[in-house]
Design brief:
Distance between the termini: 16 Å
Largest sheet: 8 strands, mixed
Strand content: 25-35%
Structural class: alpha+beta
Number of helices: 4
């Protein structure tokens, strides 16, 4: 996996950031997360026992429901800064799923791992899931990571693929799972600009996020 230094400006990346807040493609009711069969509701927040109580060590609770599995098939970079940025990009995704399960648009978990547009994206996602009455269910896989240094001290760009073919929405009130068929819409490409800790922050934080739907390069 190639890891290189880029001269891309943060402004260009921010301008390209896309918020995919509505579901697309075939099937019935979809979650507002990214695209296909997103991770919607299931159990109530108090019942969302986690597969891992606190992935982030000294950070916030990143637990998700027992009936939802997150898999990150990432290669740990040899560069320490790249490794830290990638680990906290993963934590940002975990924090978003945790907030959805908790039905809390102001959940401290995603706030710990994000700023600016990336934090706004997370909040909008949680609000949409909560409004729909959904929570996460099934399994969600992230893979094919690449970490690159942005020029001008603007942080690190983390990209990876997502296969959400087995990630579904569950109606909180009824427990009904909204299943969908696998298709090109199951594959997404994520681009996160991560910035290093500053001030009292202890983690790398996502500053912008771009989610690209129907990512053919992620099919495998």
């Amino acid at each position: 996996m190639t890891r290189r230094t880029l001269t891309t400006t943060a402004a260009a990346l921010t301008a390209a950031a896309t918020l995919l807040l509505t579901a697309c493609g075939g099937g019935n009711d979809k979650s507002p997360d990214d695209i296909k069969g997103a991770d919607k509701g299931s159990v109530s927040p108090s019942a969302s026992a986690s597969e891992s109580a606190s992935i982030g060590g000294d950070g916030p609770d990143l637990s998700v429901p027992k009936d939802f599995k997150l898999t990150f098939a990432f290669d740990k970079p040899s560069d320490a800064k790249h490794a830290a940025a990638l680990a906290d990009a993963e934590n940002y995704i975990r924090a978003l799923k945790h907030a959805i399960a908790q039905q809390n648009p102001n959940d401290p978990a995603y706030q710990y791992y994000s700023l600016s547009q990336a934090a706004q994206y997370a909040k909008s996602q949680v609000e949409s899931w909560k409004k729909g009455g959904y929570t996460v269910y099934g399994s969600d896989k992230y893979y094919d990571d690449e970490v690159t240094t942005l020029g001008g001290g603007q942080g690190v760009l983390v990209t990876f693929c997502r296969n959400q073919a087995k990630s579904f929405s569950k109606v909180i009130k009824t427990g009904k799972v909204l299943y969908n068929e696998e298709s090109l819409e199951s594959y997404l490409k994520f681009r996160l600009r991560m910035v290093p800790p500053s001030g009292s922050a202890k983690a790398w934080r996502a500053f912008t996020i771009e989610v690209i739907g129907k990512a053919k390069e992620c099919q495998r």
